Structure to design on (883 residues):
């Protein structure tokens, strides 16, 4: 029963998205890149929820649930890949060494 | 029957050529040696059969005429691919197919150890097909197709051993010089076509009338013929064309292709009669060429180049005869020349082969003992070339030309007589240097039957082939002239006993002088090196003049124009493409973070555009 | 006005925590800040009238996904050498380009928000779980199916990669 301004939520979402993007671009550690992608997904979810609140529509939250699903699948696969790389004997989780296609 | 057989004459060598070309050298050597001469042999058989049926049962219209198909039909112009066989093309067809067959049989032995024999025979058969199309075509456009075909084959065969730069350059030179003539010929044909509306030869000859346009057209056609026949000033390509294999020189650069111009002018004789100026020009060109070429032949050291210059000189006689209006004389000399010059080239080829591709006469000598058969064949050819009286074919044809030249102008007669003297001189210089004296090199091996038989057949023809046509003083046989009279009309009776005697004495004097100068001595002969002789050996400096006047300016222009604007544009396109691809390739670094960055940048741009 | 204040407060907490996440050298610290950011976001969702989303965020994101991350960090045991290397990677020169790019994106997005007609007066009512559930299994049936497919695919691929891992060891 609150009366918050949805547009403030949108601004927060935008800022969070930009931060997440910065994280993806700056960090070379795959783990941090995954976390940053989660941040960006969260920001998108926040934008949907804000828009849903603005129009009194449950669709925003439906999209939020979709995004959570994406995030879960992405985290599962991404973390499995990280584990795999670690197990294959890679000394670091350096994403920039991924272009050597060494497995 | 004749109509059915006529296309087969061309089709056999063409089919042989296509088979050989498509086999791409994968065919067994024996099969190649069978298909090459075999296809031309079938063509020669067809030609002989045609000749017998033509002569025993002459067609009412005077010629067999076969229209194969209509090529172009435009408003105001029509051309068709049609073959026609009259007495003139009959003679030419027999010369091309029969001598071609003999030379190809010879070539099968000559080229036996060459790796590219398949390519060689493919080109040779293609050449025979083109040449037969040229002589049988009833339409000038079809003749032009054959004309270009023989030019192409000449280029391909001169540069046959293209691994050596000089051969490739000689081929290019032959092609470019004859191409200039081809361009002249084509312009001349176009001029006639616009005038008459067709290029069908009988129609052209019937509708033509004297006038400046006809004179111009004739001059252009003469230019084309001169380039093909290596007449001054287009003569520079023929000596270099000796870079090709010797059978090529025998077939293309002695017997057939270089005489294509003579044939064309004889074929269009009514057209040339309408332009007296062109006739005079033709006679003068012929005389100048025969003198210059004979002078050059006197100083050569390379046996094939002697023969090349003598070919030019003899072609000069033919042009002189054409200019005099003695069509029979020109064709008669063409035929006898085909006999003895093909024979001489074959003999030279046999010598060269057994001397391990040595062509310098000053390193031969004394070969009479080593290869008597080749010597006698070569001697027969030399006698015919020198025109020794009574015992050679060349004598009768040359006498016919000399008497006609006297009829036109004594000056031309004197030029031709001097030429005949020099011919005897350089021919027997060549014989004495090559076959007499001390041996300066060793001949190896053995001249096989496949080479010996064609040479002996041609030797007989070179000696006795002249008795088709003899002056009134010696029998007065007129077989050849009578054969051709339906085409050319009756032959004029010219000459006299006095002229005949002088013409008979001059070659004998020439041979005697040759014996006194180059008779076998103990000392090893050396080529004379007087500056004048050097100039003569270098083709009177024509090559140097052309290089200085045309080739170098052209190359300079090309070098200057190398970086022109259009090139810059295309270079710029390449540069932009290359640079762009470099940039794009750098984007594909394989690093996920960079890709994410590009996605973000793209998003920013898309948003900026969207707002 | 106090409601606006709460949105701003939660937003600020989330932004600050997120900034800490992307600058930490130790993964565990980053993940803890991430949990803080997610809890702040959950509060933000609640104040935007979406309690269902807030609960899901706490349970699934902060509860499940982050725990998964923590497990992975524990398994691969990123120790002291990794931390120093991590610090060497986070240099100002590395930060500069991406920050500029992100700032550009932020500017354009804010500019776009300012020009939109969405920002009208606050009139928020709560959209409860019932409404969400009705629309999920009503008009968005296909979306639910797609989500289930996606989860299945994620499950299969994670299982595949993990199994190969086990065999290799």
């Amino acid at each position: 029963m609150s009366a918050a301004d949805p547009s403030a939520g949108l601004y927060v979402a935008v800022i969070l998205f930009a931060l997440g993007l910065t994280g993806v671009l700056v960090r070379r550690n795959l783990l941090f890149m995954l976390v940053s992608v989660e941040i960006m997904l969260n920001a998108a979810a926040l934008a949907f929820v804000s828009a849903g609140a603005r129009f009194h529509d449950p669709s925003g939250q439906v999209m939020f649930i979709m995004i959570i699903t994406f995030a879960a699948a992405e985290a599962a696969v991404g973390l499995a890949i990280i584990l795999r790389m670690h197990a294959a004997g890679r000394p670091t989780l350096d994403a920039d060494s991924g272009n050597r296609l060494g497995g | 029957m004749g109509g059915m057989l006529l296309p087969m004459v061309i089709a056999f060598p063409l089919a042989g050529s296509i088979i050989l070309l498509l086999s791409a050298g994968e065919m067994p050597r024996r099969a190649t040696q069978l298909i090459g001469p075999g296809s031309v042999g079938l063509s020669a058989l067809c030609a002989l059969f045609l000749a017998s049926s033509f002569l025993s049962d002459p067609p009412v219209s005077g010629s067999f005429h076969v229209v194969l198909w209509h090529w172009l039909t435009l408003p105001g112009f029509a051309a068709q691919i049609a073959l026609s066989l009259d007495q003139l093309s009959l003679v030419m067809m027999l010369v091309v197919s029969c001598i071609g067959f003999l030379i190809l049989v010879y070539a099968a032995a000559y080229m036996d150890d060459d790796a590219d024999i398949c390519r060689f025979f493919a080109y040779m058969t293609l050449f025979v097909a083109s040449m037969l199309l040229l002589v049988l075509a009833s339409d000038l456009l079809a003749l032009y197709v054959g004309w270009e075909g023989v030019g192409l084959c000449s280029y391909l065969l001169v540069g046959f051993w293209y691994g050596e730069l000089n051969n490739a350059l000689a081929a290019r030179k032959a092609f470019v010089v004859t191409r200039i003539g081809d361009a002249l010929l084509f312009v001349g044909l176009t001029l006639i076509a616009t005038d008459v509306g067709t290029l069908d030869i009988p129609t052209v000859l019937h509708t033509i009338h004297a006038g400046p346009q006809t004179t111009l057209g004739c001059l252009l056609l003469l230019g084309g013929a001169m380039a093909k026949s290596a007449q001054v000033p287009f003569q520079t390509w023929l000596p270099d064309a000796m870079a090709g294999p010797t059978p090529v020189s025998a077939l293309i650069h002695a017997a057939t292709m270089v005489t294509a111009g003579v044939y064309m002018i004889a074929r269009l004789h009514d057209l040339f009669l309408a332009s007296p100026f062109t006739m005079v020009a033709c006679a003068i060109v012929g005389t100048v060429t025969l003198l210059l070429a004979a002078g050059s032949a006197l100083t050569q050291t390379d046996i094939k180049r002697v023969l090349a210059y003598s070919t030019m000189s003899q072609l000069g006689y033919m042009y002189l005869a054409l200019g005099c209006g003695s069509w029979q004389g020109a064709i008669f000399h063409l035929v006898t020349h085909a006999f003895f010059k093909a024979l001489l080239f074959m003999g030279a080829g046999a010598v060269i082969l057994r001397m391990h591709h040595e062509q310098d006469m000053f390193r031969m000598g004394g070969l009479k003992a080593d290869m008597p058969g080749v010597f006698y064949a070569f001697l027969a050819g030399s006698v015919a070339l020198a025109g020794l009286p009574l015992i050679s074919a060349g004598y009768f044809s040359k006498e016919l030309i000399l008497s006609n030249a006297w009829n036109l102008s004594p000056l031309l007669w004197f030029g031709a007589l001097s030429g005949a003297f020099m011919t005897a001189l350089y021919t027997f210089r060549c014989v004495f240097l090559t076959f007499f004296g001390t041996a300066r090199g060793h001949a190896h091996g053995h001249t096989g039957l496949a080479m010996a038989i064609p040479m002996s057949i041609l030797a007989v023809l070179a000696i006795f082939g002249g008795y088709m046509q003899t002056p009134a003083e010696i029998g007065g046989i007129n077989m050849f002239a009578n054969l051709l009279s339906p085409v050319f009309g009756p032959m004029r009776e010219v000459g006299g006993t006095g002229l005949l005697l002088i013409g008979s004495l001059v070659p004998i004097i020439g041979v005697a002088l040759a014996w006194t100068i180059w008779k076998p001595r103990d000392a090893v002969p050396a080529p004379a090196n007087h500056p004048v002789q050097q100039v003569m050996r270098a083709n009177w400096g024509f090559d140097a003049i052309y290089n200085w006047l045309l080739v170098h300016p052209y190359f300079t222009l090309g070098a200057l124009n190398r970086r022109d604007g259009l090139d810059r544009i295309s270079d710029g396109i390449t540069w932009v493409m290359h640079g762009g691809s470099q940039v794009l390739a750098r984007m594909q670094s394989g690093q996920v973070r960079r890709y994410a960055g590009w996605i973000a940048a793209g998003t920013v741009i898309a948003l900026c555009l969207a707002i | 006005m106090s409601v606006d204040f709460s949105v701003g407060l939660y937003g600020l907490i989330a932004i600050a925590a997120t900034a800490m996440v992307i600058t930490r050298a130790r993964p565990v610290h980053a993940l803890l800040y991430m949990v803080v950011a997610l809890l702040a976001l959950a509060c933000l969702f609640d104040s935007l009238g979406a309690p269902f989303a807030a609960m899901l965020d706490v349970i699934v994101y902060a509860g499940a996904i982050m725990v998964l991350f923590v497990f992975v960090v524990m398994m691969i045991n990123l120790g002291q050498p990794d931390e120093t290397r991590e610090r060497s990677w986070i240099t100002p020169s590395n930060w500069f380009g991406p920050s500029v790019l992100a700032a550009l994106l932020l500017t354009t997005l804010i500019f776009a928000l300012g020009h939109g007609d969405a920002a009208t007066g606050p009139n928020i009512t709560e959209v409860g779980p019932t409404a969400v559930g009705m629309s999920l299994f009503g008009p968005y049936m296909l979306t639910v199916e797609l989500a289930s497919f996606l989860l299945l695919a994620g499950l299969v691929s994670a299982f595949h990669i993990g199994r190969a891992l086990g065999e290799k060891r």
